[in-house]
Amino acid sequence: MKKILTFALAFAFAWGASAQKTISFEGSDEIVRLWDNTTAQHSNYETRDEMLRKNKSFSQTSSCELYIFKAAAEKNQGVAIAMYPGGSYTRLNLAVWLAKWYASQGITAAIVKYRLPNYGHNDATLEDAIGAVRYLRTRTDLGIDPAKVGVMGSSAGGHLASWVSNAMPDGEKPAFALLHYAWINLLKSNSGAADKALMQLLGKDYTEQETIDLSTYRMVTATTSPTMLLLCDNDPLVPSVDGAEYYEALVRNGVKATMHIYPYGGHSVKKHVEELQSAVLAWLNYLGLTK
């Protein structure tokens, strides 16, 4: 079995017994465990065993791990991406194909197994997402430039990536954000999947004000990370106009931004892979992160 590295903060918080089983995805170049509910500052109070379904999606997560796909050495320009999987905040869908593509382009990619919010315990989720960015900045041994670490997320993972882009302190925010059909406006969510996601993120008795407060287009300031949005007009779960609200907020605050809206593709960009890949590389080049 692949060696798992541990990078735990020196917290001594006791969250009670932690007998649940935690597991890893073994398909990456390196696995790094940041912490679990017994060693992190915050807990999501998950007591069930973690589940990994056919190496494609996690659920019931109680630990944070990074699955690192190392940049191709001959192309490495110091860029790294913390990838936050989507899955309505009820599971984590692993986009391994995308992580491998980033690595082939000289970009270190780290899929983040973050602790799911678990009915309102979202401090642990944000802690994991921010922790991943901070950890990648320490990995200069992989050729990572600390000033070139960005975030990427799809759907609920896109919400998390945009949240991190605004929640981290000024001077620490990610160098860039790539948002794929990101869940931006929580107040307007009206699908069954969105209802489940809201209960996971905010608890069963969430209020309208809580959905407003965590709608990330309302968080944007002049120091928000430069952002690329990728959307599909016929997305049945996340309307493209919601992404446009985030884009408008970025432009209004003078943040570098670009947006690509495809006419079809649904709640995915897999039907536009070549366009996506070309757009991402062009965006990183425009930001001066690659040559």
- The total beta strand count reads 12
CATH fold naming: Rossmann fold
- Give the H and E element order: EEEEEEEHEHEHEHHEHEH
Q: How many H/I helical runs? A: 7
> What is the oligomer described by this structure?
single chain
Tell me which CATH architecture applies here: 3-Layer(aba) Sandwich
By CATH reckoning, the class would read Alpha Beta
Query: How many structural units, i.e. domains?
Result: 1
Our estimate of the beta-strand percent is 15-25%
Helical amount: 25-40%
Rg, rounded, reads: 18 Å
Coarse structural class:
alpha/beta
Estimate the mean pLDDT confidence: 92
Which outline best applies?
globular
Query: Which stretches are poorly predicted, pLDDT < 50 over at least 5 residues?
Result: 6-18
Biggest pleated-sheet summary: 9 strands, mixed
Q: Kindly report how far apart the N and C termini lie.
A: 37 Å
How is the secondary structure organized here?
Layout: E1 4-6, E2 30-36, E3 51-53, E4 57-59, E5 63-69, E6 80-84, E7 92-93, H1 96-104, E8 108-113, H2 123-136, E9 149-154, H3 156-167, E10 177-180, H4 192-202, H5 208-213, E11 227-232, H6 240-252, E12 257-262, H7 273-286
Parallel strand pairs: 1-2, 6-8, 6-9, 9-10, 10-11, 11-12
Antiparallel strand pairs: 2-5, 3-4, 4-7, 5-8
Helix pairs in contact: 2-3
